[in-house]
Amino acid sequence: MRWEELTAVEFEKAVKDLGVCIIAFGVLERHGNHLPLGTDYLNGHKLCVSAASIEPAIVFPHFYFGQIFEARTFPGTLAINQRIMVDLIQNVFKEISRNGIKKIILYNAHGGNSAMLKFLCQCELEQENDYQLYLYTPEGEERRKFYCEVCDTKLHGHACECETSISLYNHQELVKMETIDKEEYKPKRNLAHIPNLFTGLSWYSNYPEHYVGNANYASFEKGKKLFEFETKQLADFIKAVKEDKVLEKLSKEFHKKTEF
Fold first, then answer.
1. Rounded percentage of the chain residues whose pLDDT exceeds 90
2. What are the distances in angstroms from CA 163 to CA 69, 155, 158, 177, 205?
3. Which residue, 12, 160, 167, 211, is the most exposed by fewest CB within 10 angstroms?
4. Sign of CA dihedral 219, 221, 222, 223
5. Does residue 140 carry a pLDDT above 90?
6. Which domain holds residue 164?
7. Interatomic CA distance for residues 233 and 136, integer angstroms
8. Neighbour count for residue 150 (Cβ, 10 Å)
9. What's the CATH code of the domain at 113?
10. Which of 84, 124, 127, 83 is nearest to 106 (CA)?
């Protein structure tokens, strides 16, 4: 169920019946020369809607405020001040809760949001709230193996074969395959001389063109397979969250122990 498409009466009933909201976190940024700026939030939101059609949940409207400072060198990027962004997202959580939804699933559609979303989950330990955050982290051997079976290329990361394939499946009219360079874009490794390093410029040092891999191998058919796989995985996660009775109990236990 899409939040923005429900009437107030329908929304109130959905809250009582489901009690779960899922929000896809994307950004506005360059995706090579062939994908739209909104690729992350467009694909992420559509995936959440698809999963919620299998395991019903309320899907929050398109959300494109996230961590994307590394793409400020490109036209169309929307990079919000970090303090405003954190306040905004936490305010969104509180508003979702105020509307009666106490289980909030976070779906990350943009790699650059990973650390930020984990940090926001950890911030929930600062004070007790009347809702719980569930950050979906799709990893594991099954997923890796499936992607290897579907895709022809091994190097992925941004606007690559898999992301372009999913975009072709979701909104083919927005993908400009004719603009893709023939060669594969590999990491530049400009900071490889410093072992075990992370810096704010780590991404830029490797991918100054904001493109990784070779999207020429992308196809609608591959995108369909990948999207359906991701939909099933996310639907299973939604089901598990709806059935969960442990996280709230642990949260109350934890916060009670912080009261000295």
1. 97
2. 21, 12, 7, 13, 21
3. 12
4. positive
5. no
6. 3-257
7. 10
8. 18
9. 3.40.50.10310
10. 124
Query: What is the C-alpha to C-alpha distance for residues 47 and 26, in angstroms, rounded to an integer?
Result: 12
- Dihedral sign (CA 79, 135, 213, 159): negative
pLDDT at 180: 96
Torsions phi, psi for 207 (to 5 deg):
-130, 70
Mean pLDDT in residue range 64-80? 96
* Residue 139: per-residue pLDDT: 84
- What pLDDT band is residue 157 in, cutting at 50, 70 and 90? confident
Each residue's pLDDT tens digit, 208-258: 999 999 999 999 999 999 999 999 999 999 999 999 999 999 999 999 999
pLDDT at site 198: 96
Residue 233, φ and ψ in degrees, nearest 5: -60, -45
Question: Residue type at 105?
Answer: I
3-class SS string, the chain: CEHHHCCHHHHHHHHHHHCEEEEEECCCCCECECECCCHHHHHHHHHHHHHHHHCCCEECCCCCCCCCHHHCCCCCCCCCCHHHHHHHHHHHHHHHHHCCCCEEEEEECCHHHHHHHHHHHHHCCCCCCCCEEEEECCCCHHHHHHHHHHCCCCCCCECCHHHHHHHHHHHHHHCCHHHCCCCCECCCCCCCCCCCCCCCCHHHHHCCCCCEECHHHCCHHHHHHHHHHHHHHHHHHHHHHHHCCCHHHHHHHHHHHCCC
